[in-house]
Amino acid sequence: MKSNPDIKKVARQHAEMAEFFSGGLTVKKTTAEKTESPQVYPGGSDPQNEVGGLSAKKTASQEVINELEVIAEQTRQCRKCPLGYIRKNAVPGEGNTSARLMFVGEAPGADEDEQARPFVGRSGQLLDKIIAGCGLKRQDVWIGNIIKCRPPDNRDPKPEEIIACIPYLQRQIELIDPEIIVALGAHAAKTLLNTPKAIGQLRGMFHEYTPGIGKKSIKLMPTFHPSYLLRNYSDDNRRKVWEDMKKVIAELGLPIPQRTSR
Description:
Elements: H1 7-22, H2 31-35, E1 40-41, H3 62-77, H4 83-86, E2 94-96, E3 101-105, H5 110-115, H6 122-133, E4 142-145, H7 159-176, E5 180-184, H8 186-193, H9 199-202, E6 207-209, E7 218-223, H10 226-231, H11 235-252
Parallel strand pairs: 1-2, 3-4, 3-5, 5-7
Antiparallel strand pairs: 2-4, 6-7
């Protein structure tokens, strides 16, 4: 059953959309953001959650929440590859434990390594704007990476690092059981889809991701990584990301915010 739109919420969505499309990207981090610990929200239990459509999925069981924390602790103790010895912090991922929507990037960066949280640097600030532009909040979704530790100098993850680390993410996906995964960037998309195709060939359409043998498939939408947008900021690239996200929003059955004029 559809409810009447919340005027204040729609206005906020439009403001976020306008900021995203007009290039308002640089936001200084506050002290609270630098020191905040990873957040986990049992689905539908966050008192600030205004997105009725996203809370339709039942709340995650305590068993699921406990196992997700076990996985997080395992990543903190992990030494399966050399990255475990040179990182500052593992970055297990965070968000709604029964999220319908999951975002997966490539690897933590310097800010993430410092704070042990995913997407908290400039790329994270842009991702927050994209999420808000969709009418959602960070606590409505789950955010993580293919690997849990920062590669030196933010280089691409090596195949052996991905092989060592990907089981953590696969199990997180299985437990959270999202309806849609958004793969942020070429490395995340190629890894999850096991394909050599470029992100330009993959984005704009849904693909099927299967966590493992005998597991049900999940719709996956590849799109540009926020860091790519920061390096190659243009109207065309912003439009492509928004077109991808509109398809995700529509697939979830949520209202699509209208782009405001610039």
